[in-house]
Amino acid sequence: MLEARYFKRLGLEEIANKVAQGQRLSISDGERLFACPDMNAVGSLAHHVRTRLHGNIAYYVVNRHINYTNICVNGCRFCAFSRKKGDPLSFELSEDEILDKIRANGDGLTEIHVVGGCHPDLPLSFFEDLLRKIREIKADACIKAFTAVEIAHFAKKEGKSVKEVLERLKSAGLQMLPGGGAEVFSSRIRERLCPEKLDANGWLDVMRQAHESGIKTNATMLYGHIETVRERLEHMAALRELQDRTGGFVCFIPLTFQPANTALGHLAPSTGVDDLKTIAVSRLMLDNIAHIKAYWVMLSVKLAQAALYFGADDFDGTVIEEKIGHMAGAESQQGMTRREIEGIIRDAGLDPVERDSLFTRLTTRPQVANSCEGPRSILRRDDGRV
Ligand code: V47
Ligand code: SF4
Hints:
Blueprint: H1 4-9, H2 13-20, H3 27-35, H4 39-54, E1 57-61, E2 63-67, H5 95-104, E3 111-115, H6 124-137, E4 142-145, H7 148-158, H8 162-172, E5 176-177, H9 187-193, H10 200-212, E6 216-223, H11 229-246, E7 249-256, H12 272-285, E8 291-292, H13 296-299, H14 301-307, E9 314-317, H15 338-347, E10 351-354, H16 375-378
Parallel strand pairs: 1-9, 1-10, 2-3, 3-4, 5-6, 6-7, 7-8
Helix pairs in contact: 3-11, 3-12, 4-12, 5-6, 6-8, 7-8, 7-10, 10-11
């Protein structure tokens, strides 16, 4: 329900009208939303859109993250995860170690999320082999693997085109790309924070080619460091423009920056108000991306729950093991059980719906506990509340 007088008093009348009529918002509309001191006004507009799209549902996925290595040739200043080759804290999982992690949590998994640093030596054949083996042991889960940055790195290292790398990985079992590596597209920011990394046009181009090859992807934005509000909005506008052309983005994930153990450790983490406004403005600006994720790992479980009323319709998933956020100080737990996630969503007054990576609703899920649900879940109350 959009109350005209309320929005008029806040100078948001025109934006509220556009939202009510499903019209596209401009970057200056986005600036006005960020500048609005009443976070509830911005949140209610986003919740209106989220409810129009998804009703009373909040999605989640039974997934597992696997980082195959933290060795990386790029030295992004916001990253606490990566190490140079030879560093005592570097690691590199063997194929067997990766497969063992999947076997250990195999039964209920519908998504396997595999990413790593840009390793100087691992050949493309290692990843093709790995995808084939994962497929063999877990044919019914979606393999969502390798950011656009890793894909471009494989192509450069092998002297092959991005298209060929994508096609080869797809033949080996790759179904989807995660949205990482986008950071903020502004060249001002990239020069300061990640000059070695694939640039904005390169990231967008890998995603365009993935979409054209029939590989859907997600998209992220890393915010809350040295970027301006306008740079966030320009980032969203660039994603929106590509989405108009390809329709290949499934979900947008605003990633709140975790500063600990990074070269930007002196920066204060973003505030809860900024996190919720960023989720809300993302929902309002990205009118052609169906889903907005409240990634509990970075946001914290409590703020991610609140974000379900600020435009987010997805809670991500069980995750099981997470390194990128936690090495940078994220205080959330390592993983969540399906029952814990359902409890959080129900407690927010919404209906939990398990999905696969492409947001197909899973209704045939057996109701028995599986190996993704750790022993704690057995101790939960019957109503699923935590
Ligand atoms: O690519 C790096 C970012 C990304 C930090 O597609 C940081 O479903 C916060 O992309 N603080 C990895 N963020 C995470 C990611 C992701 C997560 C969940 C789901 C999906 C999906 C994608 O995290 C990196 C980088 O952009 N990152 N360092 C940091 N200190
Ligand atoms: Fe490497 Fe990714 Fe970390 Fe950058 S963010 S240093 S590309 S692992």
